[in-house]
Design a protein that fits this description.
heterodimer, A: about 180 residues, mainly alpha, 10 helices, B: about 190 residues, alpha+beta, three-stranded antiparallel beta sheet, 10 strands, globular
């Protein structure tokens, strides 16, 4: 079923909208949640919560791209769950590593929030990503948006793991410089 | 202070075209990560429950088959118990009813692989004080792609906060006796 038909079902408050969404995007959403949480049950919970969020959001919301709309919701829900449970040291894996990697881009005593909103910061990130060569950008987004493992990224882009790590390392350094240049940090 | 965890979250708001662009080579295979504590709980459960006549053979399932004992002490049927983590139930409220989506998490495993239909044998709706406002069952519906949708009517129930409690489900297959499925599931909702 195409996205337009699924959105029509949501707008008509038809319950088949949820099954149609699950059929089309269930694997995509599970993949994102699993990358972050590394736990099947918690991931399933996030995916189901995503369906509920979408059911409550549409209407009135009219997403231009249903797939990324769903992806953003499940990613946020999974990160919230990750944050909550990581206090109990329940999760390890890629998310923890990715968080640690991103720490390199931020000085320990920065106060970004006080001077810049999330939206403005996202705009700056978009500017940065827009200036990157395509392969670098894809790898960077795979790592920090999809939270994919280095081995998965290396395999999917037919490069060695050490090459993937170097690309990510250099891109993080470029991001740090870019944030400094933009006066964000 | 913006910490890296927050940066990761803000990263979620990047332009959709970059998200789509990076997604093209992704392969979605479900990863199975089991927490050791969960596996330990399953093992303890499997050896401690009395009256168990057959433990699901897969090792992944926590459910078990149990004899239903009649008045004379003889087994009169079989039920399947402890399925809370094998079935996902998801509800949304819409137009004076609850829409419940029940999803079998292990559709390839017995008993789920044998079922063609699924129903709610026993549910109740309680208010904030724990008073039963409504109880009932929902007849079996055909399983489509490991999921079933049910409507639980809320007519006659005033606005307020409630809890839906599902304690028994039922599975069916043509020409077979329905299989009673024990579950311990509840969810709060607000009727508006």
């Amino acid at each position: 079923m195409d996205d337009k038909s699924i959105l029509d079902l949501f707008n008509r408050r038809s319950e088949t909208a949820i099954t149609a969404t699950a059929d089309k995007y269930g694997k995509y959403l599970s993949g994102i949640a699993c990358n972050i949480l590394h736990d099947e049950r918690d991931s399933d919970e996030c995916v189901n919560d995503t369906y509920l969020r979408v059911w409550n959001a549409i209407p009135p919301h009219k997403p231009e791209n249903l797939k990324t709309f769903l992806g953003k919701i499940v990613r946020n829900l999974a990160l919230d769950k990750y944050k909550y449970y990581s206090r109990e040291k329940r999760y390890a894996g890629q998310t923890k590593k990715a968080v640690e990697e991103l720490e390199e881009c931020l000085p320990s005593n920065n106060c970004i929030e006080q001077i810049i909103s999330d939206k403005e910061f996202a705009d700056i990130l978009n500017l940065f990503l827009g200036n990157l060569p395509q392969l670098k950008r894809k790898i960077f987004v795979r790592r920090y948006w999809y939270l994919s493992s280095i081995s998965e990224i290396a395999k999917d882009y037919s490069i060695s793991e050490s090459n993937a790590k170097i690309i990510l390392f250099r891109t993080r350094n470029e991001l740090k410089l870019f944030l400094e240049k933009e006066g964000v940090i | 202070m913006m910490r890296s965890g927050k940066l990761l979250k803000v990263f979620g708001e990047i332009d959709e075209k970059y998200i789509m662009e990076a997604e093209t080579k992704m392969k979605y295979k479900k990863k199975f990560y089991k927490k050791p504590i969960t596996l330990a709980a399953v093992l303890v459960l499997c050896v401690s429950v009395s009256g168990v006549i057959a433990i699901a053979k897969t090792g992944m399932l926590e459910g078990y088959f149990k004899d239903i004992i009649g008045k004379g002490g003889a087994a009169v049927g079989t039920s399947y118990e402890n399925t809370t983590n094998e079935v996902n139930i998801n509800i949304v409220e819409a137009d004076d009813k609850l829409i419940a989506q029940v999803e079998m998490l292990y559709p390839d495993q017995v008993p789920y692989s044998e079922l063609e239909e699924f129903g709610i044998e026993s549910y109740k709706i309680v208010d904030e004080k724990g008073r039963i406002i409504k109880k009932g069952s929902v007849s079996m519906e055909r399983i489509e792609n490991r999921k079933v949708l049910f409507n639980i009517p809320l007519d006659g129930i005033p606005k307020g906060n409630y809890k839906l409690i599902v304690s028994k489900m039922v599975g069916g297959k043509k020409a077979d006796q329905p299989l009673s499925i024990g579950i311990d599931w509840e969810c709060e909702f607000t009727k508006e």
